[in-house]
């Protein structure tokens, strides 16, 4: 073998490697030879840990000593829908304390579905002198006090994004903790905050940060204050309004309209809580430049939505409520030929009867009219195989397809058949499909189609579907690239799980709740697969007090190199080789 | 018969053949079979699916149970179609379904919080108007809220079925509200829905102050019940 490693000095190799950013490529580089492995690990600056329990902070630090940017994910996705009990885990504190001493030059922390305390936020603010980016996506466990520490101490902060986190609002004055000479904010997202922030502090902050490109306000910022803010930041590229309602006054309207017209770079709009339709025309001047529009909190009716959307010819992403109706989606299909992503949310998710005329037809229209459509999240109340087949044939470029038919077990409303062949058409035609969520009446057959065709599928969500273990077996044995599988309320049991145990080590995680997996099977899986953490979540009490054949409530299986975790609450049991570790 | 194949499902012959071919066993390939447990697991699933239905009205839980069984014992004839559903306003709520995040749910539920002040009381209260369906409910709630600190005399359901609101002769306080235009109006003038949209805050005004501060009524009486207080005002 040619001794390539010695042909170039380390510095040269390091320089070459610096152009390689993707984790996959870097992992490949590190396997070439010992010296490339060493050079690569010393030069890796970004680390992404998709499951914070898959590896320990110590191991990450040992392998990559010079990291500047860390991204961690904690709870399973179904935590978003209250399926993961409070206290389950996902604590970031051990990571923060380990990194506080190991990575003094850390610049970026991005967390998703993790629990972070004010103490950790304070530690971050004091440990990393060059800290620039804090993104907390769907996180919890902290308050505005923690934010105050970040504001007060992070002199080089560029990005503070609170995503859709749950923040305990103790005081709106945390924003005033940014020193007067702090001017480096580029992106600020406080949309999730429930109560008011100090508006004068916000105004001053916006006014003195010339590089501010993203500003997402919370609902409490009133509309009559928005114009002022916009005038101080005409360079904004992304804006989230506060409440978009006020008494209709011509002076407020003209100020607002003028302010929007002054924002020549604005490409993304969101917010729009409590919309008063009379104020919508204020944004018309900038519609033609918009690439992204999030109206998913805007309770306005179809005619207003159509007027707005028809002017956004360059729209690439639209999030909207089902108030848009089929008619509005027809208009979208006609006007927005560059559309890549559509999300339609339900305005009345718990209503028994449809409250708006939004059906499968709207989605079919958009699939016909928008050639670049590749990402869909669609809530509706009826669907047909014919519609799904049409969508599949229209859009073979689809990469993410999430359909939620609101009532479980809903069949094809035209034929009363299951929707197997419809979803089958999706996976057959859309060869690059990476993410799929199923709903409606489905038998094992749909899983046969998925296992056969969905070779690029990475994430699959299944609910109220299937008839037997065969369904699960098709998925696990057929989907070569599957990384995440989440299942609820399906009659899948032990057989498929145990027969495909080895597959689970090739995936990030498996979630199964309200299925038919027995405690005995979980124990067996845990004993036989040391590379997996097999965690049983059951709020009814210890599973070993019931017969082994009894089904458990929730199962979360994930691959790990750091063994069972030790921060489990009383309702989580891990099935491990060592029986002593089984008990909480 | 293994619990996971059903004779009713179309194509089940193919299914069971393929199933036998894969020789799935309760255990890793090469392991001994688990004894028993299969019957228990199927029953357990149905049981737990019923547990999922959060113990509400028995009719709804039996309806959902029917659906889950239909999924299990699939045959096209026994499918529950949309038409057969009961006309209950809200469907049975299953945890986490449909998959809408709490943040979004809360934002849509809408809260119409308004401050409520009572003349002479040291503090304000905040009420979410959206949780009430009528003036009656709202006023009853306000009465309960403020009763503890002082007496709001007067009742609002009169004799002979005539609904009466706060007969001013007996009462010390008049319920008023500030509307979108900044005017102080008497609570009860406009239909409930209109009130919901226009009310910015509420003040239980001392009746002695009420005269002369309320905006004159410009609309003919449009609410569905009589307001005796109005007549009292006119009488002054």
Which key features would you list for this structure?
heterodimer; A: two-stranded parallel sheet; 23 strands; 31% helix; globular; B: 236 residues; 5-stranded mixed beta sheet; 11% strand; disordered N terminus; disordered C terminus; Auxin-responsive protein (chain B); PB1-like (chain B); repressor (chain B)
Protein described:
The complex is a heterodimer of chains A (584) and B (236). By secondary structure, chain A is an alpha/beta fold. Chain A contains 20 helices and 23 strands. In chain A, strand 13 (317-321), helix 12 (325-335) and strand 14 (341-345) form a beta-alpha-beta unit. The termini of chain A are far apart. The longest helix of chain B has 15 residues, at 58-72. Chain B is 34% helix and 11% strand. Chain B is an alpha+beta fold and 236 residues long. A five-stranded mixed sheet of chain B has the order 2-1-5-3-4. Mean pLDDT of chain B is 57; it is low at 1-21, 23-88, 150-170 and 217-236. Chain B has helices at residues 12-22, 38-51, 58-72, 102-109, 135-147, 192-198, 207-210, 228-235; strands at residues 113-118, 125-128, 173-178, 184-186, 201-206. Chain B is built from eight helices and five strands. The chains are: A alpha/beta (584), B alpha+beta (236). At the A-B interface, helix 17, helix 18 and helix 20 of A face helix 1, helix 2, helix 3 and helix 4 of B. Chain B: This is Auxin-responsive protein. Chain B: It is found in: Nucleus. Chain B: Belongs to the Aux/IAA family. Chain B: InterPro entries: AUX/IAA_dom, AUX_IAA, PB1-like. Chain B: Keywords: Auxin signaling pathway, Nucleus, Repressor, Transcription, Transcription regulation.
């Amino acid at each position: 073998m040619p001794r390539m490693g010695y042909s170039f000095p380390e510095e040269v190799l390091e320089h070459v490697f610096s152009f390689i950013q993707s984790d996959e490529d870097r992992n490949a580089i590190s396997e070439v030879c010992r010296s490339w492995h060493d050079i690569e690990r010393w030069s890796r600056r970004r680390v992404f840990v998709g499951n914070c329990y898959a590896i320990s902070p110590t191991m990450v630090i040992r392998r990559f000593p010079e990291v500047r940017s860390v991204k961690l994910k904690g709870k399973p996705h179904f935590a978003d829908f209250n399926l993961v009990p409070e206290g389950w885990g996902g604590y970031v504190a051990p990571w923060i304390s380990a990194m506080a001493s190991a990575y003094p030059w850390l610049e970026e922390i991005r967390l998703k579905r993790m629990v972070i305390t004010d103490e950790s936020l304070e530690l971050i603010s004091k440990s990393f002198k060059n800290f620039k980016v804090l993104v907390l996506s769907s996180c919890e466990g902290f308050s505005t006090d923690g934010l105050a520490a970040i504001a007060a101490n992070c002199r080089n902060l560029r990005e503070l994004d609170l995503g859709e986190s749950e923040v305990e609002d103790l005081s709106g004055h945390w924003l005033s903790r940014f020193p007067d000479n702090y001017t480096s904010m580029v992106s600020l997202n406080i949309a999730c905050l429930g109560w008011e922030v100090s508006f004068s502090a916000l105004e001053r902050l916006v006014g003195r940060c010339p590089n501010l490109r993203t500003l997402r306000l919370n609902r409490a910022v009133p509309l009559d204050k928005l114009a002022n803010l916009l005038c101080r930041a005409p360079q904004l590229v992304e804006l989230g309004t506060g409440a978009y309602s006020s008494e209709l006054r011509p002076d407020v309207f003209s100020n607002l309209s003028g302010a929007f017209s002054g924002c020549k770079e604005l490409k993304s709009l969101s917010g729009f809580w409590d919309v008063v339709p009379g104020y919508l025309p204020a944004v018309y001047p900038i519609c033609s430049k918009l690439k992204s529009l999030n109206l998913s909190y805007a309770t306005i009716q179809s005619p207003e939505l159509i007027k707005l959307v028809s002017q956004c010819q360059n729209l690439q992403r639209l999030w909207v409520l089902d108030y848009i109706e089929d008619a509005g989606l027809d208009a979208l299909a006609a006007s927005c030929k560059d559309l890549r992503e559509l999300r339609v949310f339900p305005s009345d998710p718990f209503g028994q009867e449809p409250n708006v005329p939004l059906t499968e037809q709207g989605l079919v229209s958009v699939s016909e009219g928008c050639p670049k459509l590749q990402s869909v999240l669609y809530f509706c109340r009826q669907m047909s195989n014919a519609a799904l087949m049409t969508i599949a044939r229209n859009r073979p470029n689809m990469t993410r397809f999430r359909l939620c038919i609101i009532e479980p077990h809903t069949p094809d409303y035209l034929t009363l058949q299951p929707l197997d062949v419809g979803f089958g058409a999706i996976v057959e035609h859309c060869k690059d499909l990476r993410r799929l969520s199923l709903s409606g009446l489905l038998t094992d057959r749909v899983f046969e189609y998925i296992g056969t065709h969905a070779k690029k599928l990475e994430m699959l969500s299944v609910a109220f579907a299937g008839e037997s273990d065969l369904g699960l077996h098709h998925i696990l044995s057929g989907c070569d690239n599957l990384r995440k599988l989440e299942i609820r309320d399906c009659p899948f049991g032990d057989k498929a799980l145990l027969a495909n145990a080895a597959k689970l080590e090739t995936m990030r995680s498996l979630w199964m709740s309200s299925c038919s997996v027995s405690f005995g099977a979980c124990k067996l899986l845990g004993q036989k697969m040391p590379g997996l953490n097999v965690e049983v979540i059951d709020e009814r009490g210890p599973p070993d007090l019931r017969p082994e054949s009894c089904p458990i409530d929730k199962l979360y299986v994930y691959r790990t190199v750091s063994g069972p975790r030790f921060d489990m609450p009383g309702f989580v049991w891990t099935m491990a080789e060592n029986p002593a570790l089984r008990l909480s | 018969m293994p619990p996971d194949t059903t004779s009713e499902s179309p194509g089940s012959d193919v299914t069971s053949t393929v199933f036998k071919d894969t020789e799935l066993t309760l255990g890793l390939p090469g392991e001994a079979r688990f004894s028993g447990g299969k019957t228990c697991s199927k029953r357990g699933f149905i049981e737990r699916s019923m547990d999922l239905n959060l113990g509400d009205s028995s009719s709804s839980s039996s309806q959902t149970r029917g659906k889950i069984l239909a999924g299990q014992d699939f045959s096209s004839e026994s499918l529950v179609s949309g038409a057969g559903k009961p006309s209950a306003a809200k469907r049975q709520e299953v945890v986490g379904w449909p998959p809408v995040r709490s943040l979004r749910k809360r934002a849509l539920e809408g809260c119409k919080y308004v401050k409520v002040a009572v003349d002479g009381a040291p503090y304000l209260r905040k009420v979410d108007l959206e949780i009430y369906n009528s003036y009656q409910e709202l006023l009853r709630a306000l009465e309960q809220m403020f009763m503890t600190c002082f007496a709001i005399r007067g009742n609002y359901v009169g004799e002979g079925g005539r609904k009466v609101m706060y007969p001013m002769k007996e009462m010390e306080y008049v319920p008023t509200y500030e509307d979108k235009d900044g005017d102080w109006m008497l609570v009860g003038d406009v239909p409930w829905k209109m009130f919901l949209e226009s009310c910015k805050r509420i003040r239980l005004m001392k009746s002695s102050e009420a005269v002369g501060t309320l905006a004159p009524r410009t609309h003919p009486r449009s609410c569905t019940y009589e307001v005796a207080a109005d007549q009292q005002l006119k009488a002054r």
